[in-house]
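Researcher: Re-running this chain for the archive, since the previous output was lost when a drive failed. Same request as before.
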Amino acid sequence: MPLIPSTKQVAIAHKFAIGGHGRFSLIAGPCAIESEAMALEVAAALKQICKELHINLVYKSSYDKANRSSIHAERGVGMEKGLEILQKVKRTYHLPIVTDVHESWQCAPAAEVADVLQIPAFLARQTDLLIAAAKTGKVVNVKKGQFMAPWDMKNVITKLEESGCRSILLCERGSSFGYNNLVVDMTGLIEMRSYGYPVVFDATHAVQKPGGQGTSTGGNRALVPPLMRAALAVGVDAVFAEVHPNPDKAFSDGPNQLNLKDIKSVLQTAIQVDDIVKGAM
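Model: Regenerated structure tokens:
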């Protein structure tokens, strides 16, 4: 009997699929698009690393961080410029793209570039946003709200399916545990995977301290690798990790973003865990 039941496979831009019993895929990039040069730098490095390690890569970055702690915080380059940069990353490195959408009207223009539309955790129950994302025909990656139980995601799935979407990824990024703290319930990953769709583990947001620095979010990136390994040990299908060349200078989520120079060694260890678990399935 397999340790973890298989899920359906969700095709990503006709390049590869997330799900089933294959090696985990990586969704990674800087939290926010800060410049074209940095976006291209990170994309090039991640593509080379993933090629060497035989990991499928989806490039992630946000054109707008709409849920910042402070009104004065950097939000990114904006939708028009951001999508231009993501299109250049896609064209230059032939990578599938995922980016966040925050309002229903953003879904159609974002889908002209992105292969996967991501629903932020705070918006996981926003029906109109889910419907608009579903109607684009793109893959939809929904981050489970910090305030939601794993089984609450069944209603999210129903909203997407009844709106015509069958290419769904469910993403765990931790649950609120008291003030400014998140915890990850590993049994919740198994619960969500039992619904038949691939599960993504957001390793960097799971170590956040939301609002923990007063006007910005805190976190502890040193905890990312062990949580990533733990999630792979229960059989997740993809890992989400925000990666930056200089996290301490990042526009957003600096304390929990991984340094680009460290990501290869983190992934090498993650592969060892994944191979053991997938080999037993």
